Amino acid sequence: MRSTPIKVCLAILAAVAPVARSASGGSFADDLAFLKSHGDPLVLSDPSGAAQLAVEPSLQGRVMTSTSAGGSGQSYGWINRELIASGKVLPHMNAYGGEDRFWMGPEGGQFSIFFEKGKSFDFANWFTPAIFDTLPFEVISRSHDAAVFGAKFSLTNYSGTAFRVEVRRRVQVLDADRSWKNLGMAPVANVSLIGYETSNEVKNVGKDTWTRSTGLLSIWILGQYNPSPKTTIVVPIEPGPESVLGVKVTSNYFGEIPATRLSVNDRAVFLAADGKYRSKIGINPRRCKAMLGSYDGINKVLTLVKFNQPANTTDYVNSLWKLQDNPFGGDAANAYNDGPATPGAKPMGPFYELESSSPAASLAPGESLTHLRRTFHLSGPRVALDAVSREALGVSLDEIEGAFGTR
After folding, report:
1. Is the peptide bond prior to 350 cis by the omega test (within 30 degrees of 0)?
2. How would you classify residue 246: left for phi > 0, otherwise alpha for psi between -120 and 50, otherwise beta?
3. I want to staple 317 with a disulfide (CB 3.0 to 4.6 A). Which of 20, 106, 256, 269 is the partner?
4. What is the CATH number of domain 11-401?
5. Which of 243, 289, 293, 238 lies closest to 403 in space, CA to CA?
């Protein structure tokens, strides 16, 4: 049985610990107090103290949440208070939350690391490897604004291939100047922002080369955020014919998504992120522009995620739950909106998710691959956020909010 990394409090503390939370997020100080009552998070900050992260070593160095305005500022990450406070360890996956967590792929197919050899591809046989789910990473070093985490472990895929893996994960808060520079634009007046990056390195520390014929791994970084009735995910895409670039979006992971929740044009894909309808989209590497975003029209928060995407690389692991004709024809980016899996069922969150992946890692012994991901949360006057959205995502706030008509 896997042991939980979150400390279970005394019964009386667990009974009074706050569990309920606004769907659009509370304060950073409130979330940090909750995390401290159940674990031992590291707090990283920029020199001003306004930009802060709560990072949990016992959950693989996961960024649980962040803020751009100190303790009283809005907390941007989704945290599953109910599950954490319960002290339970669930068999298939423990959705503790967090806005930047380390996973690896592929999830499905003949090279899956979530299904055992010979098992059918259904939920009863799907298990998240404990090293991505409930086990801790070692704290290698830390400073006021950065921390480095590490782990060594073994994985075996559906085809029986064994991998020996070493991970180094560095989490760094960016100061305002560096954040704007990484966004590729001059600072915008009256905008409050936090920027941070995670550098995720995977190394082959085994004796055999990882090959396409026996299966490859990938780095998969996922961020969970608080939904609202007026939050919309935005994914910029490369324009061009499908005969050259492939489909604009893969949207049938859980069945077709209604037009009231998914809108696609030549420049971008829009997905409703209200946490009320289970839906997922994927962007192939030819279409992907290494950028994801969302806009919360209630709290006036623009979220941007940038990641490294090697040029002219198209081998990405395919995570579909079936034996595959093209196991390296997967997505470079995904987005997910939570909701009931079946009518009347309880949702996992609710939350919404922005996901990025590295290419498939074809590594000889001693070689490594790094996936760099930067997250930015910005709040301020609408006109200022509109300017940032046009520059970073190529779409205006009016386009985002009008993607599905009136909501």
Report:
1. yes
2. left
3. 106
4. 2.70.98.10
5. 293
**Which residues have a Cβ under 8 Å from the Cβ of 261 and sit 6 or more positions away?**
271, 272, 277, 279, 337, 404
The amino acid at residue 181 is K
Q: What torsion, rounded to 10 degrees, do the Cα atoms 113, 236, 374, 252 define?
A: -20
Query: Which mean pLDDT values do the consecutive 10-residue runs of the chain (407 residues) have?
Result: 36 33 72 97 96 98 98 97 95 96 98 97 95 97 98 98 98 97 95 97 98 98 97 98 97 93 97 96 98 97 98 95 96 97 88 98 98 98 97 98 81
CB burial readout 271-280, b (16+ within 10 A) else e? bbbbbbbbbb
Give the count of beta carbons closer than 10 Å to the beta carbon of residue 235. 27
CA distances from 335 to 12, 124, 140, 233 (A): 39, 24, 31, 8
User: pTM for this one?
Assistant: 0.93
The two beta strands, 192-204 and 268-272, are unpaired
Cα torsion 50, 397, 290, 79: sign: positive
Considering only CA atoms, give the Rg of the chain: 20
CB 302 within 8 A of CB 292: no
Delimit the domains of the chain by residue range: 11-401
The residue among 387, 402, 19 whose CA lies nearest residue 189 is 387
H/E stretch holding 109 reads: none
DSSP annotation of 359: P
The one-character DSSP state at 123 is: G
How far out from the chain centre does Cα 145 lie?
21
